[in-house]
Design brief:
By secondary structure, the chain is α/β, with parallel strands linked by helices. The protein has a single domain, classed as Nucleotidyltransferase, domain 5, CATH 3.30.420. 41% of the residues lie in helices and 18% in strands. It contains 9 helices and 6 strands. The chain has helices spanning 6-17, 22-29, 33-54, 116-129, 143-152, 200-212, 227-243, 254-257, 267-284, and strands spanning 62-72, 91-100, 106-112, 135-138, 157-165, 180-189. The chain has a 6-stranded mixed beta sheet with strand order 3-2-1-4-5-6, sandwiched between helices. It is globular, with a radius of gyration of 20 Å. The chain starts with 5 loop residues before the first helix and ends with a helix.
């Protein structure tokens, strides 16, 4: 790939994490669509590796977990009719997220299905990134129960916040979710503090994902066409969220608040990390 000017690379990353789609990023920067996609792939790979190495040994007390829905190429009901029928990445796609309630650090994320296998893999990843006993809160998704038991055993304080839903608004059943009329805190293992049985922070973070990533916007044609692009876009967003964007309440980045880094990153630092990784790969080749 021909090297883009530094400022143009910074602009592409900035647009991608602030809600612009691939085509919009290409138009606004003057780069071709294929160039933007190649840089998305490169930066996404780097951000995935950096998150895996840097977000370790997190001294957390409270972790909240949730899942956010999207789809790749086609919605699940249309997947069998897709021209790429047989591709397992087509259809519904869930992003599992875990956030530290104090620092707002996105500790772990996983992209894929919403079944027990993914739940176990996700909780296993969470356990490998925290260095302390935690209080974990999830929604009422049944797959969490066995996953937490298999991974943590008795070494956790775990509770579920089970939402109670009413009927969907009349005349808006297709696009509006059913109204949440209550939530039932349900201790499951250990001794979770009732005051901290909550999923508010992770749900707010997932709202930021839907607002900040164009591929999560509902009722548009901006959805992900390829699973790899979907994952890479998320990786860039999470890197930006943890290390670059200053949290309005904390007045610092989540990574600084969690002690993962002592440096306030700028977007330029993220571009340099990508450049350094690319240079190392070229030397190895």
């Amino acid at each position: 790939m021909n090297r883009l000017p530094f400022e143009k690379r910074r602009q592409i990353l900035h647009l991608l994490v602030e809600g612009a789609g691939i085509n919009a990023a290409a138009r606004l920067t003057g780069a071709s669509k294929m160039t933007v996609l190649r840089y998305l792939e490169l930066a996404g790979q780097v951000c995935m590796e950096h998150h895996d190495k840097a977000v370790r040994g997190v001294k957390s007390q409270r972790i909240q977990c949730d899942e956010i829905w999207s789809f790749v190429h086609a919605k699940q009901k249309n997947a069998p009719r897709s021209t790429r029928a047989g591709d397992p990445t087509i259809g519904d796609c869930w992003t599992w997220t875990a956030i530290d309630a104090d620092s707002k650090l996105l500790v772990s994320y996983m992209v894929g299905g919403r079944d027990a296998e993914y739940a176990t893999a996700f909780i296993q990843d969470v356990s490998e990134r925290v260095a302390t006993r935690i209080q974990l809160t999830s929604d009422g998704h049944a797959a969490y129960l066995r996953a937490v038991e298999n991974v943590f055993g008795v070494d956790i304080d775990y509770a579920q916040l089970v939402k109670i839903y009413g009927a969907a608004p009349e005349g808006e059943k297709r696009y509006s979710p059913a109204e949440c009329v209550g939530a039932k805190p349900t201790p499951v293992r250990g001794n979770p503090n009732p005051k901290h049985i909550s999923t508010s922070y992770v749900e707010r973070a997932n709202l930021s994902i839907r607002m900040g990533l164009r591929r999560y916007t509902r009722l548009t044609n901006a959805f992900s066409k390829k699973f790899s692009n979907h994952v890479h876009g998320l990786a860039i967003y999470f890197m930006y969220y943890n290390f670059v964007r200053i949290h309005q309440t904390l007045r610092t980045t989540p990574a600084q608040a969690a002690g993962v880094t002592d440096k306030l990153w700028e977007l330029e630092d993220l571009v340099r990390v990508v450049d350094e990784w690319e240079a190392q790969m070229n030397i190895k080749e």
